[in-house]
Amino acid sequence: MDVRRSEERYRGGDAEAGIESRHAFSFGPHYDPGNLRFGALLACNEERLAPGAGFGEHPHSHTEIVTWVVAGELTHRDSTGHATVVRPGDVQHLSSGGGVRHVERNDGAGPLVFVQMWLAPLRPGGEPSYRVVRGLPDATPCALPEAGALLHVRRLAAGERTAVPDAPHVYVHVVAGELVLSRRGGGGPPVVLGPGDAARITAEEGLEAAAGERAEFLVWEMEGAP
Prior knowledge:
8-stranded antiparallel beta sheet
């Protein structure tokens, strides 16, 4: 288990434009050859946009882009004609295929906070596609067969527990609250994660997550690295 703390994230964005970004992996000018990806996951960005701020039209290709809105409203437009407002509890998935352009903005009255994750597809190319899963429930993962991955969203009250998937690669990102990772039946000290912290778990079995206080977190269950 490789634990990465929130304060270790690369700082990005544009303060004058009202954009604050924190990157878990090498991203843009923040290049670290030892931190390029984990399994299929290429990026896990925490984004904060002030009202009126946003990312102008820009291209993507050969990338699966998944967005979880934490607070506020995200306005999305893309070159395939989709125009959508994504709200807390919604999962947005843009499969860029061979190429697509899109815009992401905060057109709401309050601040916008979201987590955006990029995954490498199993096969590059193809036609772009877009979907929004409204109000994804805890018990239903969001499947990304294009990347050989499943996204689980978990919200636990203080003291509640849930199993961590057994998979070649598991990535846990804490959105809010306190999370404790441990092995069922003991064996090794527990790991405490706070907001913005993440755990990269390789070929582990029998792990569980417990909320030290009410917690919201995202779990990627991924096949072996290509």
